[in-house]
Design brief:
The chain is an alpha/beta fold. It is 41% helix and 17% strand. The chain folds into two domains: 2-186, Rossmann fold (3-Layer(aba) Sandwich); 194-373, Glycogen Phosphorylase B (Rossmann fold), CATH 3.40.50. Helix 13 (302-309) links the parallel strand 11 (295-299) and strand 12. The longest helix has 26 residues, at 348-373. It is elongated.
Length: 374
């Protein structure tokens, strides 16, 4: 029924000839990414960069949830000009949101649906007044029930191609010729500010004074229980790494992780192994600290994507979710996929051996660079 109401009273959903879009004439662009978690948002950043590249003079507004944009948007972010947070309660906030949305005459509105298809995001995009509305018609045979609100749309088979989330986001933008080269993709990362860099430097000097020792960091928690490698596995892994490298250990922890991290720390203390816990810290500062460690071993959770975004050395662990879709890409970023949907079917020995290979590789690179500069 809604489909016919929008067709009678709304704007046309007739296909748009994207070849006639003149980047010089596009003044305002809206991106609606309000429904997803931190990892989803971070995987959208290459799309934001591609939109900025295609429309360098446009004012780009992002609709985000209050909890998923902090890592991205500050005065140093080069891709987004303005963020409007979507709050549907209380009703006053919703009214103010739509008033703010109508302050711009949007030529293009984009809904990059790559995980789930949000009806709310499409309605926000439609009521923004955007003339060209870009999104997905279907995802791997999952039909977008509100695709009639779009006039640039395609059917995508991403699972079949085993595409990473960053490529899925870019596929949405490619419909209007927004794309990045491989080199440009590599240069898209989290841009840390001086305050965050200073915080990390002070933190490392305070807790890890011996600069000759390795620092290995971990995140044993995760918001989704199936994504958590058992804490006993992390304890055993840390014991093995301690015996081999006699290194420093850091654990990152959010509010939902406290019970797990406290237990891991307590059990390790029984073996006279000290772990520094970085908890309840703004996520950009957490990223700055992770960047300063030699290796980050983590479950599939938000801080994994932050670690990838700051170009840390990462080993990520995957059970029911797919590493090919979510793990950070690049050198010294390795994901280990469980042979089953159970993450605990990843063995401690496999993670330990992978960590040793990555650490030794990085040590060899550091030695070679040191010799080169001598």
């Amino acid at each position: 029924m809604l489909k016919y109401i929008f067709k009678i009273f709304g704007r046309s959903d007739a296909p748009v000839d994207v070849s006639k879009i003149n980047p010089k004439e596009v003044k305002n662009i809206l991106i609606v990414r309000q429904h997803n978690q931190l990892g989803d948002m971070l995987c959208s950043v290459p799309l934001f960069a591609a939109i900025r590249k295609r429309f360098p003079k446009a004012h780009i507004t992002l609709v985000a949830s209050p909890i998923n944009y902090e890592i991205l948007f500050s005065d140093i972010n080069p891709y987004i000009d303005k963020v409007i947070t979507y709050r549907k309660a209380p009703f006053k906030n919703l009214i103010e949101f739509y008033k703010e949305l109508k302050n711009h005459d949007y030529q293009i509105g984009i809904v990059p649906s790559t995980v789930s298809i949000s009806r709310t995001s499409h309605f926000i995009n439609y009521f923004s007044g955007a003339k060209i509305r870009v999104g997905v018609k279907s995802i791997d045979d999952k039909i977008n029930s509100v695709e009639y609100l779009l006039n640039v749309k395609s059917d995508f088979s991403w699972d079949t191609q085993k595409l990473h989330q960053t490529e899925r986001n870019l596929d949405v933008g490619r419909q209007i010729n927004c794309d990045l080269s491989e080199d440009e993709k590599k240069n898209v990362m989290i841009h840390l500010g001086q305050e965050e860099i200073k915080f990390a430097g002070d933190f490392m000097n305070k807790h890890f004074p011996d600069k000759s020792k390795l620092i290995i960091s971990f995140h044993p928690g995760a918001g989704k229980v199936p994504n958590r490698w058992d804490k006993e596995n992390f304890i055993e892994l840390i014991k093995l790494l301690n015996n081999k490298f006699n290194c420093y250990f850091l654990i990152t922890s959010g509010l939902i992780d406290k019970e797990i991290t406290d237990e891991v720390s307590s059990k390790l203390a029984e073996h006279k192994i000290n772990c520094v816990i970085l908890e309840n810290t703004p996520i950009r500062k957490v990223g700055a600290v992770i960047k300063e460690t030699d290796l980050y071993i983590t479950n599939d959770t938000g801080t994994l994507h932050v670690a990838g975004g700051v170009d840390a050395n990462v080993i990520s662990l995957f059970g029911p979710t797919h590493g090919y879709e979510w793990a950070p890409a690049g050198e010294n970023k390795i994901f280990i996929q469980s042979p089953t949907d159970n993450i605990n079917d990843i063995s401690v020995s496999e993670v330990f051996n992978t960590a040793c290979r990555l650490i030794e590789k990085n040590l060899n690179v550091k030695e070679a660079l040191h010799d080169f500069h001598q």
